[in-house]
């Protein structure tokens, strides 16, 4: 028809939007991809205070994995990461399920639970450093009530110090998980709940076999958010323990920072950061292939 002009197809569709996205794409390529390649390349060098192209092969990686401090940091990250994922999902989902029952003062409770997420990790770490102080915090309060044998000082015990850090992390992050889960629950069609009640299906089975599978996108989003926070764990450690007692609460991000900016050993810091990147890639790439590499959904 004469009134219908030819519409742009293929590459020229939404041309204005694509042109507007060019600066963002170039920035991502230069800053992220370029910085990543630069870091990986110089991790094979003997760079100290300044980068230099003095390639030494895998020497930095051999030194890295032979260092007790790095081994401890990896162990701590695995413990913290696994516990954080499990408890964040369980506590967040339970709180969201309770909130979804249309309880009174829901907005007030939701605000109180979410409030810690508005605080920085430094503030959270300092607060829980005081709360877990045996002379000032929870232990002192309980003992003043007459329970003189009560012992609760995880930040001063090398064997369980990472769990003391975990308490602070869960306190801050669980509220966000609850809000994400609550948004997913509120998106479930009300007819599903009505049908389950009519069929006499217990509520726990409705959650387990119907609701949770329908919330898969929410769980994936939450997983990505929590995982990114776990890998970047640094502020909380510095505020609570500074890596102590000794090296018992070291984490990879602090190891990288200390070697790059305090130890003046860029090559070792680059090698450690490359291993962190590799760990993330091992998790993200298979998930992305399963999520987006299959047959296109109709």
Automatic annotation (TrEMBL):
Localization in the cell: Cell membrane
Keyword Hydrolase: no
UniProt keyword annotation of Transport present: yes
Family the UniProt entry places it in: Belongs to the binding-protein-dependent transport system permease family.
Name recorded for this polypeptide: Carbohydrate ABC transporter membrane protein 1 (CUT1 family)
InterPro entries: ABC_transporter_permease (IPR051393), MetI-like (IPR000515), MetI-like_sf (IPR035906)
GO CC entries: plasma membrane
Source organism of this protein record: Silicimonas algicola
PROSITE patterns per UniProt: ABC_TM1 (PS50928)
Signal sequence range: none
Transmembrane segments: 21-44, 77-99, 111-131, 160-185, 206-231, 270-290
